């Protein structure tokens, strides 16, 4: 361990913490879970790299954008605006609109990682793209904290970062060898499609997805990619409505609540009128 | 915007700040930010809605308009990829099957 920075220094502490996390078994699990989607991420990153250079950026500009922005969907959304010479605020506002979904996802990350120091939370947030979110929620769906989640996150996040940046840089340098007309970016769409399918678990999620897809296509002509926000709003509304309807329907089928005998193990001494649906026949 | 390196750098740094700020939004405060109950339940649908909203136009829109033909390589590719997913439930295979249908039709036949 002689190459490590001095033990007392800030950098030394962070480095040792990072190495510790990387040695935990969760880290490897996170890397493994990302390997399936990596092919799609790689193709998507390659196409993004090519598209940046073909739009007239120099290599240094494209590298700066790739490493600073690190958000594939936002990069592709603002690229046409930047080529057209749109004002700075329009470019930034568009990026905010496309990224608004991350605001929603960030409240979910809080459930798992609110106990960490703010600096660590910030670092974690920067790397929390959609694909990592889906992988993480698939493995830890019930909102319970457990110690291996942190190493799992960093395993998935570092894999995602390496694959994305590696292939983005490859695209930047090989821009003349990879024609965009091949349609390699379609692999990225297929990867997202697979991720989406893995999130569909019941009737309400299917319905919410159908509504989102229809609204996104119907409202495609809206400026600033606002069709995505419109689709999210419509889909959440429909999902909540269906949930409510299904619950009412279950309650109605279950009939009125009836008294049952007290259960001494729960500390009940008198007959109980169960009002939540699980306890009804 | 591409002519001036400094304006470009400013744009990119701003975009990076936006990435960080949006992804960290609810992670920033030390205390829990109170959220209405319906919003919390709605959060279940927001991520999949965002994904569906990004994907759907990529499948059926060309140059800003809904496609008017069935001779589009994306349609059979998505059909086969979806069939594979629900058969085997693997994302890697979904990508491979989809591209195996898409590339020959797209490059070979020009669909």
- The succession of helices and strands of chain A, N to C, reads HHHHHHHHHHH
Please tally the β strands of chain B and state the result.
Answer: 2
Count of DSSP helices of chain B? 5
Which overall shape of chain A is indicated by the principal axes computed on the Cα atoms?
globular
Percent of sequence in beta strands of chain A: under 5%
For the residues shown, what is the average pLDDT of chain B? 86
Q: Residue share in helices of chain A?
A: 55-70%
Q: Which two chains touch over the largest interface?
A: A-B, 94 and 72 residues
Q: What distance lies between the first and last C-alpha atoms of chain B, to the nearest angstrom?
A: 35 Å
Alpha-beta content class of chain A: mainly alpha
Architecture overview:
The complex is a heterodimer of chains A (281) and B (111). Chain A is mainly α and 281 residues long. Chain A folds into two domains: 10-199, no CATH class; 201-255. Chain A has eleven helices and no strands. In chain A, helix 2 packs antiparallel against helix 7. The relative contact order of chain A is 0.12. Chain B is mainly alpha-helical and 111 residues long. Chain B has a domain at 69-111. Chain B contains five helices and two strands. The model of chain B has no long low-confidence stretch (mean pLDDT 86).
Kindly list the characteristics that best describe this protein.
heterodimer; A: about 280 residues; 2 domains; B: two-stranded antiparallel sheet; about 5% strand; extended
Element layout with pairings:
The complex is a heterodimer of chains A (281) and B (111).
Chain A: H1 10-23, H2 25-54, H3 59-69, H4 72-83, H5 88-113, H6 118-126, H7 130-139, H8 149-173, H9 186-198, H10 203-218, H11 226-254
Chain B: H1 5-24, H2 37-42, H3 46-60, E1 61-62, E2 65-66, H4 74-88, H5 91-108
Antiparallel strand pairs in B: 1-2
Helix pairs in contact in B: 4-5
Please summarize what this structure is.
The complex is a heterodimer of chains A (281) and B (111). With 281 residues, chain A is mainly α.
């Amino acid at each position: 361990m002689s190459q490590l920075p001095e033990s007392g220094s800030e950098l030394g502490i962070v480095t040792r913490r990072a190495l510790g996390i990387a040695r935990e078994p969760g880290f490897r699990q996170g890397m493994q879970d990302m390997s399936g989607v990596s092919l799609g991420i790689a193709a998507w990153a390659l196409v993004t790299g090519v598209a940046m250079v073909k739009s007239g950026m120099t290599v240094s500009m494209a590298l700066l954008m790739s490493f600073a922005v690190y958000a594939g969907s936002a990069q592709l959304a603002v690229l046409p605006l930047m080529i057209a010479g749109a004002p700075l605020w329009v470019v930034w506002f568009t990026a905010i609109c496309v990224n608004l979904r991350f605001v929603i996802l960030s409240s979910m990350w809080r459930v798992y990682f609110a106990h960490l120091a703010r600096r660590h939370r910030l670092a974690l947030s920067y790397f929390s793209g959609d694909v990592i979110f889906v992988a993480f929620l698939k493995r830890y769906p019930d909102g319970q904290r457990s110690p291996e989640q942190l190493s799992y996150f960093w395993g998935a996040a570092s894999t995602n970062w390496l694959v994305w940046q590696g292939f983005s840089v490859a695209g930047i340098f090989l821009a003349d060898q990879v024609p965009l007309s091949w349609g390699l970016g379609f692999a990225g769409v297929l990867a997202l499609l697979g991720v989406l399918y893995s999130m569909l678990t019941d009737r309400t999620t299917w319905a919410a997805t159908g509504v989102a897809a229809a609204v996104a296509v119907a409202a495609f002509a809206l400026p600033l990619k606002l069709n995505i926000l419109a689709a999210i709003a419509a889909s959440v509304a429909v999902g909540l409505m269906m949930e409510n309807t299904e619950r009412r329907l279950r309650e109605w089928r279950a009939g009125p609540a009836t008294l049952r005998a007290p259960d001494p193990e729960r500390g009940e001494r008198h007959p109980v009128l169960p009002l939540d649906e699980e306890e009804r026949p | 915007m591409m002519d001036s390196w400094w304006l470009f750098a400013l744009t990119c740094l701003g975009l990076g700040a936006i990435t960080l700020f949006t992804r960290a939004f609810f992670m920033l405060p030390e205390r829990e930010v109170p959220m209405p109950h319906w919003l919390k339940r709605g959060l279940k649908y927001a991520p999949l809605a965002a994904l569906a909203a990004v994907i759907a136009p990529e499948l059926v829109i060309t140059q800003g308009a809904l496609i008017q033909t069935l001779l589009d390589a994306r349609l059979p590719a998505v059909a086969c990829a979806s069939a594979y997913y629900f058969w085997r439930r693997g994302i890697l295979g979904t990508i491979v099957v989809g591209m195996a249908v898409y590339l020959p039709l797209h490059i070979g036949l020009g669909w």
